[in-house]
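re: that chain from earlier
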Amino acid sequence: MKITQQASSDTVTLALDGELDASSSSILDESLGNPELLKYSKVLIDCSNLKYISSAGLGVFISHIKRLQDANVKLVFFNMKDKIFNVFEVLGLDALLTIVPTEVEAASA
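^ sequence. v structure.
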C-alpha cells in the first residue's frame, strides 16, 4: 500500500494505491491520525487505485470518523471501483460515509 498526499488551501487528498489489509492498515492509520489533517476542512480519499480492502482497512476509517467530525473535517471518498463500493454497501458504510463518483464531486461535497 502506498499513500500519496496532496494538499491545497482547505483540502487534502490521500490517494490509496494497492491493497489495504491488516499488514498495510497501519500506514493508513498513521496518515489519518496525523494532527496536520485537522487543519483542513476536507479529507478526500482517492480510491481509483485501491485494489482490495479488508475489515482491518475499513476499521481504520471507522476509527477516525469521530475525531474528524469533532474537528469539522469532512471525509469524502471518490473514484471507488464497484467491487470496493460493494464492500462498503454490504456493511452499510455507504450510509455512514460520503462516497461520490468523481474528484470534482468530492471537492464540492
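The radius of gyration is 13 Å.
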